[in-house]
Amino acid sequence: MSNIAILEIDGKKYEFPVIVGTENEVAIDINKLRGETGAITIDPGYKNSGSCTSNITFLDGEQGILRYRGYSIEDLAEKSNFLEVAYLLIFGELPTAAQIEKFENDIRKYTLVNEEMKNIIDGFPRTAHPMGVLASLTSALTAFNPKSVNVDNEKEMYEAVCKTMAKFLVIATWTYRKNMGYPLNYYDNTKGYVENFMRLMFELPTGPYKMNPVVVNALDKLFILHADHEQNCSTSTVRMVGSSHAGLFASISSGVSALWGPLHGGANQAVLEMLEAIQKDGGDVEKFLAKAKDKNDPFRLMGFGHRVYKNFDPRARIIKKAADEVLADLGVDDPVLDIAKKLEKAALEDEYFKSRNLYPNVDFYSGIIYRAMGIPTEMFTVLFAIGRLPGWIAQWKEMRVNKEPIGRPRQVYTGSPLRDFTDINNR
Ligand code: CMC
Description:
Blueprint: E1 4-9, E2 12-20, E3 26-28, H1 33-37, E4 57-60, E5 65-68, E6 71-72, H2 73-79, H3 82-91, H4 97-108, H5 117-122, H6 130-144, H7 154-180, H8 193-202, H9 213-226, H10 233-242, H11 248-260, H12 267-280, H13 285-293, H14 314-330, H15 335-349, H16 351-355, H17 362-372, H18 380-401
Antiparallel strand pairs: 1-2, 2-3, 4-5, 5-6
Helix pairs in contact: 2-9, 3-18, 4-7, 6-7, 6-11, 7-8, 7-18, 9-14, 9-18, 10-11, 10-18, 11-18, 12-15, 12-17, 14-17
The protein binds carboxymethyl coenzyme *A.
Carboxymethyl coenzyme *A is lined by residues 229, 232, 263-265, 267, 292, 300-307, 356, 358, 361-363.
């Protein structure tokens, strides 16, 4: 591969450097394009544009490969745990036993959320969607932690990481408790991070909460699978907002909002709602497949297709296995799950889906496990956000430490040329 790309505009040739990544991904560095040629590129949805170089996550959509810091997602899901993976993503290496113990203890130092946050939660109607509340509460954390992090100071950065990991988990579960009208719960520093999620959600003052290790284990795995996915919509948002030197909480809050959309993390909720709609309609999966294929119908098969994975989603494979284990352990017999299986089989055999490489993605199966665990549908995307948090932090940190410039794309203006102002009486 030549290390120079040549572009010809109006008969004049320009040379641009070619960058090759660790896994031989090729990119043309057009940093000087506008300066030298006066032209820009246009790439809606950034399907061909790299916004940065990154050492965090490698993803090969054609081969279905996902690696965090060089470790395969399959190995991490089987042999590691969520906090270890968070450490790996954020700090670059798997922690030693002493490092992970310290990390967990340091997170515990920040698990108490300011009581005044409860006043903010009280301002929301109980019917508010948990993702909207979570975005607002994350942003509100800025008010209680107004000092912005000096990213060049390792100790400050480390403290900010621990604080974010601690408080985000607690407020995420508070969105559910508010919804249910339950008293808000506190983190138990004698228990693990993922165990705490279950307790924070479901433990009631009226009696002890019985933890199911199979569920905790599956949830830990799900969080690992969601932990990072390079420059997806919410992560790019976090990097973009952070590039203006907005703080970590403000940047993460914008990531939560981006994740909420049904084409991104909101798809896990949309999948379940779709399956329930199919059930209500009589359970005819072929009818809904036909709707998804009809170009005049806006309906899409939720949980199918991916911008990057055009072969299979490696996360979906792991989750499918975990889903089978959890469902067997919990002895779940749910007609909605039968519809999911039928739909999956029919879509995988359908020419429209096959020819467009549309496979079940991570969200198709995650919703099914969450439902079996008793997690309400509206909380599904919140769980995605908890899993994605380490990735957002790692990417924000990398962007700031690398001193990336403020994100500010260009455009091609296609509106009206200059025209004379028309007086209001003559319009
Ligand atoms: N159902 C029916 N048709 C689809 C679907 C779908 N779920 N996804 C893509 N297509 C069709 C699309 O209409 C187009 O057809 P044609 O070539 O005839 O015009 C073709 O497949 C290519 O689709 P695209 O919209 O150009 O692909 P994209 O890369 O822009 O979109 C996507 C990717 C994930 C937004 C899309 O597949 C989709 O909307 N899926 C459903 C929502 C979903 O499950 N999202 C979760 C993604 S995984 C979690 C995450 O990381 O966020």
